[in-house]
Design goal:
Layout: H1 2-19, H2 122-131, H3 139-150, H4 165-176, H5 179-188, H6 196-208, H7 212-225, H8 229-241, H9 245-256, H10 264-273, H11 289-297, H12 312-319, H13 326-338, H14 344-351, H15 358-362, H16 364-370, H17 374-385, H18 390-407, H19 410-422, H20 434-443, H21 447-464, H22 471-474, H23 478-484, H24 494-503, H25 509-525, H26 532-535, H27 552-564, H28 567-578, H29 588-600, H30 604-617
Helix pairs in contact: 1-7, 1-9, 2-4, 2-28, 3-28, 4-5, 4-6, 5-6, 6-7, 6-11, 7-8, 8-9, 9-10, 10-11, 12-13, 13-14, 13-19, 14-19, 16-17, 17-18, 18-19, 19-20, 20-21, 21-23, 23-30, 25-29, 27-28, 27-29, 28-29, 29-30
Length: 620
Amino acid sequence: MIDSRVSLVIAAVGFALTTGLPMPLAGQTPMQLAQSGASAPGAGPVRLQPRRLVNPVLAPPQLAPALVTPTPDVLGPAAPTDGRGSAPVDVQTLQAVDNDSVGVIDDAEGGLGVDMWDGTDRTLVVQAIAMLPRNATSPTMRNLMRRLLLTRAMAPERTTPGPSLLSLRINALFDLGDLDSAMALISRAPIASTEEQMLLTEVESRFFQQDTAGACGKVRAAALEYKALYWQQAMAYCLALAGKTAEAALMSDILAERSDTVHPAFFAAMDRLSGSPPTTIDSLSAPSALYLSMLRTASIALPPDVANKATATITKAIALSPNAPLDLRLAAAESAAERGILASKILADIYSSVPFDAAALDVPLKQVEVEWGSRGRALLLRAAGRQNVPATRAEVLQAAFKMARAKGGARIFSVASQPMLMAMEPTSELAWFAGTAARILITVGEFSRARKWIELDLREGREKAPEKTDENARRNLWPLALLIGAEGSGEASAAMLRSWWQSQNQEDAGEKIIAARVFFSLLDAFDVTVPASLWAPLLGVQPAKGMRSPGSGILSSLRRAVAAGHKGEVVALSLLALGDAGPATNNLHAVNLSVQALRKVGLTMEAQRIALEAAVEAGL
């Protein structure tokens, strides 16, 4: 009965929204929608009956599970957009192929090749895309995922019923928080292939981007065809946005009868939009974009648990929500920036909203020694930003980076300080800062810029000790110089490797062992021979606690894909092997496997960059 009532309302108000005129329901006039004595529709709250209490812990309907910022010199921008995240539709040249073969980029734009799935079983592709890591912070991994999901490529033949690869790819991009790419891929979808899930993804993406006009345009059509509660709630919201207060109130009250399925946040927002006083939402875990948009429009504060189990996309939305408490926005902004979906400049802007007194800004390191966290990092970045002399700014950044490595949060500090590092030139006066600058820039994926600082360090070393042929090996940045291919780094000869080993921390044997294990393993992945005498001290060392290894299924599949030369499969399985942990020190087995595999299919630069990220993570 409720479904039919809602359907009647949707049919009526859909016409009203299209024409801009109020549309009476069968047997009623517009005036009958108002309460006795109420003012005209749109002027205030309109309710037909007392609303029932609803369960305060239920979450709204969620997208089914299915980031990615590109490295500029590897992958150009996604297709141009209209300013709201929507890319113009273009005519695809692929003919007589599965709709799953459409894409946004080709080889010239960073694609992995039209034949990247050639010879790969469709079932494996479906499973691999569904399992892609959603929370990886590695810039190289995010770049590879974006290219994998956006490449125009002939899809494996569909032999059995199952989900479309196109919808899986769109959902994966959505979950990664790369909404622009998701929308660009949606715009390429043939009209006939549009599915409810794909439409839901587009509507949610538009709500996340605060494109309520574009979202409501899609909602009007969807609500007439699909009957899920999501569309009914979205329709009520869109009516309220259009000023159709009476019709919105009618739909809201009908939905109130579903007291066991509709979250109170919906009714709180709808009441507020109709003119009622603001209310408090105590709990809203894993909200939809629809709910976040409603609460933002209604100026209702987000509850503390809104970030619990939040996806990348939700996290970014919270960071940008003016109705979120400052500490909640800070934590969300750092998380989103780490995942590469929130620009460093926006994070810096949010940092700038944290109030600090002059005394704290004058002695920031002393302050953060006792109070480390989001506010501490905000203080350090603010203090560094106040310095106009490059050397003085570099001193603050170096001390802050050292503290972040010791206390935790080195990655997010690197992301936050990226704009400052990009504005600094690697000059001889700042040679002492080269190590910190290079490590920060590698962490955030600015490899070309990092190389300049490393080469500065090498030049300084040659100028100070030109007669010592192995001096480069003793210098702090030599492992990174070798991996990045810096000019003047030399070769990984037995003599250079022994010199580096002897130069390592003699007081901390554990730290020396970790550095050597990572460095030698990475060299081995590039088929560089490390003398047996240097491996010998590592033979009896037990793996560190927490070391992880890819599952046997991934290992076996990756070996087979490499042997067959299946490029897309190798990329997907390498990403699965790395997982959310990425190129971390406790994930060295996966790092080596992925580096070797990517090299075998011609992605040497990507392999090199994963190795560099792993080296910096290990403290090299």
